[in-house]
Write a structure and sequence with these properties.
The structure holds 2 protein chains of 2 kinds. Chain A is an alpha/beta fold. Chain A is 33% helix and 14% strand. Chain B has 2 domains: 112 residues, Pseudouridine synthase I, catalytic domain, N-terminal subdomain (Alpha-Beta Plaits, 2-Layer Sandwich), CATH 3.30.70; 182 residues, no CATH class. In chain B, strands 1, 2, 3, 4, 5, 8, 9 and 10 form an 8-stranded mixed β-sheet that branches. The two termini of chain B are 26 Å apart. The chains are: A alpha/beta, B alpha+beta. The structure holds iron/sulfur cluster (SF4).
Chain lengths: 643, 298
Amino acid sequence: MRDHSLWEKIEPLLARVEKPSRYLNHEYNARVDELQVTGVDSAAAGVAVTSDGAVVETAVKATYRVALLYPDTYELGQSNQAIAILSHAINALSGCVAERSFLPWVDLITLMRERDIPLFTLETTSPVASFDLFGITLPHELAATNIVEALDLAGLPLYSKDRGSECPLVLGGGPLAFNPEPLAAFFDAFVIGEGEEVTGEFIAVHRACLARGDSREETLRALATIEGVYVPSLYAPGKGGALLPQVNGASLPITKRVVADFDACSIVVDPVVPFVEVAHDRFTVEVLRGCSRGCRFCQAGMIYRPVRERTADTIVDAVAQGLANTGYDEVSLTSLSTTDHSQIEQILRRLNRLLANTGVGISIPSQRLDAFGVAMARMVAGEKKTGLTFAPEAGTQRLRDIINKNVTETDLFDAIACAYAAGWLRCKLYFMIGLPEETDEDVLGIVELANRAYAVAKDAAEVNRRSNVRMSVSVAIFVPQPHTPFQWGGQIAHSEIERRLALLRSAHLHKGIKLHWHDPASSRVEAALARSGREASELIERAWRQGARFDAWSEHFDASRWEEAASFCGLSLAELAERDFALDEALPWAHIDSGVSSDFLLSELKRSREAATSEDCSFGSCIDCGVCPALDADVVLGGDSRG
Amino acid sequence: MAEMNFRLRLDFQKHGRLRFLSHLEVVRALERMIRRAQLPYAVSQGFNTHMRYAPGPALPVGTVGLDEHFDLWLTEYLNPALALGRLGDVGLRGLTITAASYVDPRAKGLQATHIHEEYKLVIAVGGAGAVSGVDGVAGAEGDASGTDNDVGAEGDAGGVSDANGAETASDANGANGAETLSASEIVDGLTRVIATGALSVRRGKKNKDYDLTQAIDWMPVACEGQAAATTCEGQAAVDYGERKAGDIVILTMGLRATERGTVRPELLLRAALVDKQGWELKSVVRTRLYEDKELEVS
Ligand code: SF4
């Protein structure tokens, strides 16, 4: 068998790049077996021809191989759970292997391009183009140009329509798939929703197509019949812009997939342990999925419904196994709102007992904004009281009611008082500007709230440490997201963002508080991409041709590339970002069904205009968002009741 | 503290692909290995609780180490052979623990005692594939690879960086029959550099100066030939596969750490061959790391 490993070509380059340990594979728990299959066409039974013309026998049908890419660096991708979870699911299927791939850093990309070395996977250093399936995680809008970079570096035609059956199928999934249209031209298919189960179905259908020798067209049609799979080439916009199926068997809407039993859904307890320090360098257990607090700006809160918790037993077992298998000195209990887990107190108590005197720490990504949240943070902090994070999101109660962020000033001040009294000396507060119906009073309210929070912190802190009390305020620019109650309205105008930021900066903030804000130019690109339809594919390609990549890295982002690309395509970033959709207009993402009904979104929008809040269905009663009946799912709590 | 009485010294090797790990990455990988092996490691008390250990002198990104050391404090006695076995069960290919033994808990730290370092350098000379040394040096000076992770390493350049920016040069003129550099020319060059007693190396905009009068334990020795190449641990065969006998020079030397660290052998080599063409450093191996004998005697 021929070895298609590119390692021999990569290795000599590693002495010349930053952090070569990104590219080594061989991490603990990584698969290091030698390449077992040839790069031959797995569809051909009996014999096959390798790329250099040698005829080899394929008595046993070749393994189905999947390359899974996170379209950014190893440090970000290896910290992201998506690749680990999907690899785990795919490797559990008989005759299937998954390998990891990340976008190399620019230094290695340059060297690879000079030498015609294509994008490779880590496990066997094989060209991504030699796989049956090329799965790409779609984490956020600013990864768009990295996806194009990856396709190009892999040596694949950028557009789905230009790829033949010799190319792997290119499949996308992740949060961005909830508005797949801007990326539609690049992908053969998307999975909408949670990938754990549907990936297996997708692979089964694809393998059957390969075995039958189906054409690409036939294959795509077969894949389109799977629930939760969207094949963009089978649809085209009709009158009024709404997408219509072009072939039999392709139907709409595409309803998101959820795993049936999240608690039973296996946790990856033997993840790869990176050498290079990654963004989240710890063992991770996802303790619950979804969040039903119903903040009206929050896409995650809508698209990951319903809330499903893992039980305390499952979580504690996974932590014990995972730490033993990895040797990490920290475990993180992740989710959108970990301190909302109905058994959180019990879980933390048991973990504290388990980890006593081991030097292993527990972390919770962000804190629920009340005294309970701080009490939970205290349980895990021990002596090291670093980094508390709270998100009031808006500066005034009126605006918090509009966005349904159901926390009051009292909640915030209680939380701060508890934290600083318990010994914390710093915390981060997250806000947004540009929210619907925001006034200058709301903008200045951020500064006022922060100043008062600071005063509360100072009073609460021990007398001799008061001069060390610090706080930071981080201000993001609101990007209206699909599938939220605020999906119809555009981002506020660029000049208005600048004006409000200037207003914010001019207000008097206590000198113990540091103010950070996001770059309005990159927020605008995010908004443009989040809210566009198919017209944005060309925009993305063009921006990439202008040199855009690693746009999420502020040192690499250059707004002018996007502006030039837009004018080249006859588009305007401002228009794409700022346009309002009429309530009866066909939204570019209308064919994707997150389970949350548009009636619910609309009623939430209306309630927001009256500044009327809505309840959290995990604590209170059902508010008819539509997810449970639509997906035949239920809110699942771990055991004890909440409160 | 009674529990500090068990100081286990691990001997290990960093080789193969894992030679590209930085010092910090090696330390972290060992730490995680020790936790997986569930050795009864001691935990420091206080603000930031962490495992009690002390690594030896840093080994730069890309440099192979065959005789590296790492001290770990245990809370109870554990048979060293047992510890070695348990580490082996959860080990890493390329970061191999070769021995474990207890040392005097009151002894000075590894970085103070283990100041003698022996190196082996593999240099490709002449023929296709060997590149212009001048280009190599020039390129290497701009190289910043791995420095951010490279705690404690003197390293400006990560790993075997003489190939830096030079491969294109080799494509263009490496094969045009430049005269093959001999082992004795290399040694002569090094001898000249060492005789000056000082070395000044450009790092970015600044110069870094090394005092060579205390830095050399024993003078470089070189040999040529295929036989030597096969003994170069930690290097993929491909690096030599296409080379003929006589294309490889093996250089060994003994260096000594001073207060300001150890001068990296590749820096000496670059200075020695600054005006020579057609060579490429293929591998740097720290073959031994051992204690100051005078201290041992006292
Ligand atoms: S609490 Fe609000 S912002 Fe946070 S995940 Fe839930 S809905 Fe989103």
